[in-house]
């Protein structure tokens, strides 16, 4: 009887991707060299946002998806933060609204014009201050509009109600820097990973750690 391996071979093992044509790529973007662990980009059905290298503050590009090819060095930016931008996330309910967080301890909400940026944007729709140290992560609630979560280097997660522009709850159960956070499909549970080597499943409404 011949020996058979316990694993199943992938049917994709001999499938190779094809590099897109240059005119279908985004070229010439000065992507940030920040050493933080975030993706530094976010995309929705209309726009691609990318955190860029900049001096004297933080900025990111917002490019319509159909505008491929080389991006000019003087292309308009969103540049209102006083420190490096660490994370950006598109609002899942409104395609022109994006949240950003920064080393300047602020979270900001931006509304991008329908056709994209024509000039630099420096004025945010909302500026949110509640963290005592830099803010590394933002995450929109998946089922409730205008509810945003932010995680800072003060080891706290703040839940913001953007209708009033204030935090409505603070989750203070972490002993070190929060590295990642993610919701389940209906937003009833929040999972976080932390530098203390623990993964926590939290109930956002009560702030209680379930596991």
Automatic annotation (TrEMBL):
WD repeats lie at residues 78-120, 128-170, 171-211. GO terms for molecular function: actin filament binding. Residues 5-69 form the DUF1899 domain. Keywords: Repeat, WD repeat. Belongs to the WD repeat coronin family. This is Coronin.
């Amino acid at each position: 009887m011949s020996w058979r391996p316990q694993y199943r071979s992938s049917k994709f093992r001999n499938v190779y991707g094809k590099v897109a044509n240059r005119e279908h790529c985004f070229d010439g973007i000065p992507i940030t060299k920040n050493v933080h662990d975030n993706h530094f980009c976010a995309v929705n059905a209309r726009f691609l946002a990318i955190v860029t290298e900049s001096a004297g503050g933080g900025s990111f590009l917002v490019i319509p998806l159909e505008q491929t090819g080389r991006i000019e060095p003087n292309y308009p930016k969103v540049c209102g933060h006083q420190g490096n931008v660490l994370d950006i996330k598109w609002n899942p309910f409104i395609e022109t609204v994006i949240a950003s967080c920064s080393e300047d301890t602020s979270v900001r909400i931006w509304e991008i014009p329908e056709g994209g940026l024509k000039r630099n944007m420096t004025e945010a729709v909302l500026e949110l201050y509640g963290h005592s140290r830099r803010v590394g992560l933002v995450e929109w609630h998946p089922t409730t509009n205008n509810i945003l979560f932010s995680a800072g280097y003060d080891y706290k997660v703040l839940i913001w109600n953007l209708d009033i522009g204030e935090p409505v709850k603070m989750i203070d159960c972490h002993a070190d820097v929060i590295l990642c956070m993610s919701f389940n499909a209906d937003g009833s549970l929040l999972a976080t990973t932390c530098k203390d080597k623990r993964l926590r499943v939290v109930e956002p409404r009560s702030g209680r750690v379930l596991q």
